[in-house]
Amino acid sequence: MDARALKIEAARAALAHVEDGMRLGIGTGSTAEEFVRLLAARMREGLSIIGVPTSERTAAFCRELGVPLTTLEETPELDLTVDGADEFDPELSLVKGGGGALLREKIVAAASRRMIVIADESKAVQTLGRFPLPIEVNPFGLKATELAVRRAAEALGLAGPVTLRMTKDAPFVTDGGHFILDASFGRIPDPRALSSSLHSVPGVVEHGLFLGLAQMAVVAGAGGARTILAQH
Ligand SMILES: O=C(CO)[C@H](O)[C@H](O)COP(=O)(O)O
């Protein structure tokens, strides 16, 4: 199976958990887009849902395919969010934000009763940290925030390059108007400690550690899709 087929396989397995009338959080990224394609096809056959997109990119894609959308203002509680991940560990702690949508993704996941992660086996790790951790920051005081992030990490024994995410020749700007620092700290043995440490840095808007949010992952590999349930 090629990479796209694996994404479709995971998305299809997650779609089996979508029920008529659900209020759905809809993730961002190439795997989430496969889910949107399948969802739209199922809706043409009669399934009725309403979705909250986790990014402008996902919103545009949903509109293109006719998936009806609402907002968290109108619909502040959701039944289920289906989203991709950049990596996940056996407890279903995640790193997200490779697509730059981590802030809305986290708000939407937290507003949902359940979150299902869709991924292929390449995203599975024993310990988080192989994928650089995206940290969304306010553009004001960027250098000072970056320094404080490095110091917060160092206090936990973590170090490594922290780079400003760029598009061509300008900083990447999130849907919320913020910048992203990609922190290559390597193995993160205590994600909870790093999470609270980063949250204590003024200027850090959010980070890509998703802890205790996902209840299930459907992970596609050569032998089909397997389901992982979180213990929390
Ligand atoms: O966190 C994300 C976007 O902010 C995505 O879920 C993550 O990057 C995975 O994307 P893909 O399915 O394209 O590998």
From TrEMBL:
The keyword Membrane does not apply. The keyword Transmembrane does not apply. One of its GO terms (biological process) is pentose-phosphate shunt, non-oxidative branch. It comes from the Bacteria. Its EC number is 5.3.1.6. The active site is at E105. Substrate binds at T28, G29, S30, T31, D83, G84, A85, D86, K96, G97, G98, G99, K123. It catalyses: aldehydo-D-ribose 5-phosphate = D-ribulose 5-phosphate. Pfam families: Rib_5-P_isom_A. Keywords: Isomerase. Pathway: Carbohydrate degradation; pentose phosphate pathway; D-ribose 5-phosphate from D-ribulose 5-phosphate (non-oxidative stage): step 1/1. InterPro entries: NagB/RpiA_transferase-like, Ribose-5P_isomerase, Ribose5P_isomerase_typA_subgr, Ribose5P_isomerase_type_A. It is an enzyme of class 5 (isomerase). One of its GO terms (molecular function) is ribose-5-phosphate isomerase activity. Homodimer. Belongs to the ribose 5-phosphate isomerase family. Catalyzes the reversible conversion of ribose-5-phosphate to ribulose 5-phosphate. This is Ribose-5-phosphate isomerase A. The gene is rpiA.
